[in-house]
Design brief:
By secondary structure, this protein is of the alpha/beta class. Helices cover about 30% and strands about 30% of the residues.
């Protein structure tokens, strides 16, 4: 029997879509994990009822979390992914031929197991010999880490519960310390359209700027995420994502993408006025 699922994005708004079948529903030690079939979006992954991933548009989020940073860095060889147990981010990282090692740290192993069953086109990337999956708390992993990385990508859930610490200064400080001297940290930063998130977005930006000499925010249009506009923040020790040479690097790589391209790379950093105001950026 079909029903309409309500994905609450704030106290006052939500995304609603028809579900024709519940394909999987299990409780992990951390959360309820569901996969549902929908006419609008294909298979959808829900965590505690919140939409995490859809077959139809996962490419937009994952491409935009990964490619701007990977092309900004001159030689991204060793990559750390925090979260991202569905392996969508991992899949896009491995498109970059320069990558030699990827460590993915996911708290909930059952997310990856369920994704393997229902989103194998993403989780198959975990079989690559360059990949190491570690199932533990990402905050603790980074705090105790003695390795160095060229790039850290934070593919977290919303800033509640275990993921809240991924949006705080102590975590950013730990990330800074395990990045190489020219390393880049990039994290998803929620939707600037949600008023309740404006303070968090602003504070994340301030915290990153207290550590990194160059912090740039950029946006992507993602129809199934909060209010349709999603923010990312790129914090770099050296490289500027607006450097002119990046365009030629993107064209030369000729990656198969559905959202990201060389012109969009630069355009994504042009922010609406209200977003610049949240970030206290000059117009």
């Amino acid at each position: 029997m079909s029903y309409w699922h309500i994905d609450y994005q704030s106290k006052y708004q939500a995304l609603t879509f028809e579900v024709t079948e519940v394909l999987k529903s299990i409780q992990s030690p951390y959360q309820k994990i569901e996969v549902v079939e929908t006419p609008a979006y294909g298979k959808v992954l829900l965590l505690d009822g919140d939409l995490m991933l859809t077959e139809k548009d996962e490419f937009a989020y994952h491409e935009m979390l990964v490619h701007p940073t990977m092309f900004t860095h001159s030689h991204p060889q060793k990559i750390l992914i925090i979260g991202g147990g569905d392996c969508g981010t991992l899949t896009r990282v491995l498109q970059h031929k320069m990558v030699e090692k990827v460590v993915l740290v996911e708290l909930d192993e059952m997310v990856t197991q369920v994704s393997q069953e229902y989103f194998p086109q993403l989780v198959s990337s975990a079989q690559d010999p360059r990949v190491e999956l570690i199932f533990t708390d990402g905050i603790k992993y980074v705090h105790n880490c003695t390795d160095k990385y060229d790039v850290i990508l934070v593919d977290s859930t919303d800033p509640i519960g275990p993921a809240e610490g991924l949006f705080r200064l102590p975590f950013f400080q730990d990330c800074y310390h395990i990045l190489e001297e020219d390393g880049i940290l990039c994290l998803q930063s929620e939707s600037p359209w949600i008023p309740e998130l404006a303070e968090l977005i602003s504070q994340v930006n301030l915290d990153l700027k207290s550590l990194f000499p160059l912090v740039k925010a950029y946006v992507a249009a993602i129809q199934t995420y909060q209010a349709g506009l999603w923010l990312f923040q790129l914090a770099s020790k050296k490289y500027n994502p607006l450097s002119n040479d990046i365009e030629s690097k993107i064209k030369e790589a000729d990656l198969k993408t559905k959202y990201y391209n060389s012109k969009l790379h630069y355009g994504a950093f042009i922010l609406p006025t209200f977003v610049n105001e949240i970030l206290n950026e000059p117009l």
